[in-house]
Each structure stands twice: as structure tokens, then as C-alpha cells.
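Q: Give me a backbone?
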Amino acid sequence: MASAKVVLGLAAASLAVATLSHRTLAEKGLPIARPAGAARVVKVVGEDFRFDAPDIIPAGLTEFRFLNKGPSLHHMALLKLTDGKTVDDLRKALATQGPPPAWLHAMGGPNAPDPGSEANVTMRLEPGNYALICFVDLGGAPHFTKGMIRPLRVVPAKNASAGKVKSDAAIDLYDYGFKLSSPIRAGTRVFKVHNGGQQPHEVELVQLAPGASVSDFMNWLQKMDGPPPGKALGGVAGMEVGMTQYFSASLTPGNYALICFLSDAKDGKPHFTHGMVQQITVQ
């Protein structure tokens, strides 16, 4: 979950480490075989203020499982760096606080779960240079300024285009709101999230406390006094126009909130101030 101050708005135990032979192939840039029709699982852990994650993973359908071991909210936003750019170039670009450069692409990733909880996202990755980053800012400074930024290299792999994800419901993002394809039932549900807007968007899923409303949760965010009237479950971090990703969450009956915290491309205000916040009920 990114804060209103985030420029892009685009948080380890360790990766279930690949075998030595796979790591050797990856370091040489050679294709890596994987079972057809299955997403490769990559485990990442975030804490104050670092990521534990692999340096190299194969391209293709990938499920990121992000465990938040920190005492506060974190997410694992994924950025793609084109034109040969590196994380050092990214740090310099972020320091300027200007508009994002053309070589920087918001790819989504697991949005913020509560401390001690896990969030996930499934996406299709192309070979290239990427960065894991946490943009969460809870009133101090964005977490990447404290060390939560890490390079990731994606290398070619066999069967990289294989595999499909089945979803239970779709969440369409637009300027400025959310559209659900159907009512949501309790249980473990897979959501297909598509950004059909004109600028990057995200979705943070919050389970509201009994008796609390989305207004109560948004008001709490302004001061953060007392226990939060809701629990962050994850979602999809900021992603570019036209992108589609998937995430799953285990839901019980009750009220939930969908929120976009990204800053607007025109006025810099968070998208929820433009109406991109919605309360939903799970039966």
C-alpha cells in the first residue's frame, strides 16, 4: 500500500532457493526448464527495512509470495528498468522527485499485508532488469529511502509462455474507481485485476473491523491513533495502463474496502481523494 506522498505510488525468510544447477544456468543467461502450465513460485520477505529475495529468477508465469515480517506495513512493488538502467539509476531518478523517466515501468506486485501476514500476485515476467521496492510511507519517509530496494534479474526460460490463471472474479481499475464483475462470496478467492484507466493504479484490499466503515478506516489513516479499524490483506501494487495481474485472498463474511493510494498524474493528490475508494460486502 503506497502513501499519498509516493511519486509512482507504486513490500524473507528467503526464496525457496533454486537448485545449484538452475542458479548456474541463470547466471550464464541460459534457458531454464520448468513444468508447463504452472506458475513458478518466488518467495520474498520484507522487514524493516530490507528485502530477502533471489538475485535471479526465470522468465514466465510467476507467483510472488510476499511475507511481511516487519512491525509495520510493507509491500513488494516491482519495477522494470529498460534501456540498460540499473538500481543505481533508479535511486538517482527517485531522488529528483520528478516525473518517472520513460525507462521506468510500474509492474505491480503484492500490495501491503498486515505485519506477520502474506500477500501474493501472479504475473507474467519477461527477461530484463527489475527492482523490488517498498514505497510505503507512514508519515516519515518512503521505505525505499531506508533500504527497501533491491535489484532482480529475470533470465530466459523454457515454457515461459505456458500456463494460465483461473479467477473467481475480476476487478477493473479506472479513473477513478473499481468495477467488480460479480458479488464476492466468502472463501479463498482469486481476483483478476486489470488497469483500464489512463494512468497507473493499484488496489489495496482491507478487511474492515466489525462495525467499521471505509470512512472510519480512511479517517484513521490521517492520524493512526489507536488500533486500526481494519486489516490489510494485500492486492496489487501500482501497475501501468493495460496491465493485468492476479491475486488471491481468504475472505470471511463482512465488509471490506478497495483503495488506490497512488498519486494522480495531474494534481499529485492520492487517487482515493478523487473517489477511488469503495466499500464492498462479502457474503
